[in-house]
UniProtKB/TrEMBL annotation:
InterPro entries: DM13_domain (IPR019545), DOH_DOMON (IPR045266), DOMON_domain (IPR005018), Spindle_Org/Thrombomodulin (IPR052126). PROSITE patterns: DM13, DOMON. Pfam families: DM13 (PF10517), DOMON (PF03351). Keywords: Repeat. Residues 231-363 form the DOMON domain. SMART domains: DM13, DoH. This is DOMON domain-containing protein. The keyword Glycoprotein does not apply. Residues 1-73, 85-189 form the DM13 domain.
Amino acid sequence: MDDNTTVTWDAGASGLSDTASMKYVANEPPVLQQHNNTDIILKLPMGKRIRDILWLSVWCRRFTVDFGEIFIPPGLDVPKPRVLPEFKRLAHGLRSSNISILDAKTFYIPNLHYDGAGPDAYFWVGNGSEPNIMGTKVPNEIGSLEPLRGYQGEDIEIQLPGNLTVYDIDWLAVWCVEYRHNFGHVYIPKDLDVPPALGQTKIATTTTTSTVYTQATSKPVNVNCKELLRGKLNVMWEVMDDYIVIELIGRIQEDQYMAFGISGSHGHPQMVGADVVVAFYDRRQRRFRAEDYYMSSLSQCDGKLGVCPDERIGGKNDVEILSGDRSHGVTRIKYRRLLQTNEAVNDRAYPLDRQISVIAAIGPLNSRDEANAHSHTGTEVTVDDVQIDFASKNDHTCTDALDNYRDENGPEPWPLRTILGEKTITARIGPTGGKRGYTPITGHPSWGIAWYMNDLLIPEIYVERGQTYTFIVEGGDEMTQPAK
């Protein structure tokens, strides 16, 4: 054959002689180039499905020569994605919706929640009846192998590394390597018949449609964050098309709100004339809420004047809540609103050409689940002029993640215990002690279990150089489940 020979893929509905029925009538198909162990994805012509054809061949149209063919058996069960259950919920708020295996290497995890508090946690796969230390790290949705950040209802895809496929593993878990702790897992069935991993199963996720947040151990990418109330309230933001997306992160009680918005006057924090959003957890309806407010005076709303939801004074709630989560005493609520709404009186525009003064506050909710008066001590309301350029990129000045905290309004923690002069010490696992135990004593979130030494919760142990001490450890013998 000469250099002008045209070789194409061809498919037929009855037999090899029916090639004319599959000829292109518009654009000519590309001539096949040389291939050597190449993976190729072929898309059938418009309207054709696998069940409509009987064979696929490599065909030379000039010399009507068949270079090779494959026949499609009748009743072929075409590989397709497989839907699994959600993550088993064991620790750190891990949960999700039903997980899907899209192809031999790709997992789709919708509505993923995880508090991000595990110090050395990863997506983890392996073999055996339970997740265990003999597993393999799986890169996160952006291909990183750094410890997992927190997730607040995000949809993500992850892919198995190297030559590993779903046929090689028994489970997918979120696992803390340092503490050998399983936060939750899902089992992989043995009767899988999913598509090969050739890049054909990519779908839209939070990662592909919005800003990607990287691990908490490094500075976020394309994320803005500013501290509003030291140790109590941070704000994150980004502009997406005609919307401003805002996330409030507050160390508040369940009966409190957090408020953020544009000051009533540029250059200093002024509540009168301010346009704010009040975000909180509605305990009666068991859902997170974000309400559009306008402040005409420093008083409780009477239906006309005061600190009022827009809807109570003839306006509209222009705020759309996106997600909410509460863990370790920290509430995170994300919402969006138009940069410029149609309510000129109650709503102020978010400018993108300059900095603008903002205000923030936290305080109690009243019986109507509306914002009540906050204290004016400076710890619950902005007293200095805080300005934000909402068009900025990577304006990340937050230093406190807010989840290492002491419960200031809770009961007094138990006093710190000590062990001194004892040569034999028995270590057992037990509960963390609730509002008087591990977290109030240390100021760090608990793992749900804690060590007791000689029946004392996390005591300080004094030992003397040159002496011999015996530790009897009764920590359980179930290696795959540290909590047991």
